[in-house]
């Protein structure tokens, strides 16, 4: 490859150090350094990966910042501007954090945290003010479910140990002292003696959302001979039914409380006649009265 002299323009042989015409020093054309093209390709590949990653991650970062509690809050009162605008508050006035326009006992910031309406004293329209409502976004009810039943003793006859006829079982349910229904709803159902039976009988009762409630369960054998109260308590010689204090929970539905009672545990059977003991298990659940479990 000829080397052109930068002084006189004479063409010199490749590798020449001085120009054969004018004697001026000449330089051979520079060669690309080994590996430089590979480095360029690797750099371009890395840049492409970073661009793709940014495109994928950006929407998630945007959603997390726009949907969370870190939204724009011009007056720094803990309530996003959007929420304040939607509810007629001033996003530039920090003092409205502590006002209570609907008079329900909750300040605006508390309404924001609980998800209630600062302009409606009873957001779920259940008759209980938001400030007193344990579950302010739902009209709460208690679902009372009888899961299993085992009647230990024969029911009818003078000497019950000789009688193996099935019982006609039915439960009376009370809430806060008021009778609210019978299980099963269709009336007494035949249940074998000394056999654990799965029932899943349930009733849903609308209750006040501002306090705990007392649920009472009584078991009867109800047939043509008569209606006999069976002992499912086992802890109280004077009370054969079960009385349960139930707390609805806080803020939302879904709280569950399970339990059982076994009348056999009190040991009140006599030599000639059993006390008519039974075992029962139950579940109490806080539900929305407008969407009860099936």
Describe the protein.
- The chain has helices at residues 36-67, 81-86, 108-114; strands at 3-4, 11-12, 140-151, 167-175, 178-183, 189-191, 197-206, 213-222, 227-230, 242-246, 256-262, 278-288.
- It has 294 residues and is an alpha+beta fold.
- It folds into 3 domains: 1-28; 68-121, no CATH class; 140-288, C2 domain (Immunoglobulin-like, Sandwich).
- The strands form 3 sheets. Strands 4, 5, 6, 8, 9 and 10 form a 6-stranded antiparallel beta sheet that branches.
- Mean pLDDT is 85; it is low at 66-70.
Give the name of the CATH superfamily of the largest domain: C2 domain
What general outline do the C-alpha atoms trace? elongated
CATH architecture of the largest domain: Sandwich
CATH class group of the largest domain: Mainly Beta
Largest sheet descriptor: 6 strands, antiparallel
Helix content range: 10-25%
- Taking Cα atoms only, what radius of gyration do you get, to the nearest Å? 41 Å
Number of domains: 3
Q: How many helices in DSSP terms?
A: 3
* Mean pLDDT score: 85
